[in-house]
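This part of the workshop introduces the protein records we will be handling. An example says more than a description, so a record of this kind follows:
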Amino acid sequence: MSTLTSHRVLSFDAYGTLIDWETGIYTSFLSTLPSTTPNPSKRDILIHFHSLESSHQTSHPNLPYSHLLSKIHPLLTSKLNLPTPTDEASRRFGESVGDWPAFPDTLDALKRLQKHFKLVILSNTDRESFSATNAKQLPGIDFDAVLTAQHIGSYKPDKRTFEYMLDYVRREWGVERDQVLQTAQSQFHDHHPAREMGIRTVWIVRPGALMGGVGDKGEDICDWKFDTLGDMADAVERTNHEDDE
């Protein structure tokens, strides 16, 4: 019977799972608006953002994420009936990823989990953006591998992204598919494509999240489910304690 601790690698989605990207996107977007502009609701911003991000990741799989954010920024303002932004405002939005905050439980949970697993980032971002996140929001965490869309040439939920990760962990560490846990909040980006590829998943729900669902396209799926990464770390430690007894 498979347990959490029978796996060797945690493959993480970063933004939405480790990083509170909804707050980051919202606050970064508002900071690009003129001070006299009424602020749209967080829900409206995120719903339109999610749609634009998904369509542009499909149509521009080789575009670095920071550039993709800059590209969709004026489209987002248009969807929200806001003034057309300056090029500088769009550039700042694209470069804001490193300022998006970590969830309060993330740093401690990663420190505990790295005692039991290899930690891999599998992210729809670019090297520079994630490096900024690692330095500013996740200090002291030395991930065993950082695999980004910029490395891979595809964005999740494209299955090529997961194939790349599986090839990497097999080649570098001799880790097979059944020893990997895709650990993520997004059903759309992570759980559904991972399930189709036979990868077990841990759903970090992040209650209240507005993005990452599948809507009416399917059900929520996972092998394990926790509200927070801290809850998952607690479960891993309990399992290890029981195994030692």
Q: What stands out?
A: The CA atoms of residues 183 and 202 lie 5 Å apart. The two ends are 18 Å apart (CA to CA).
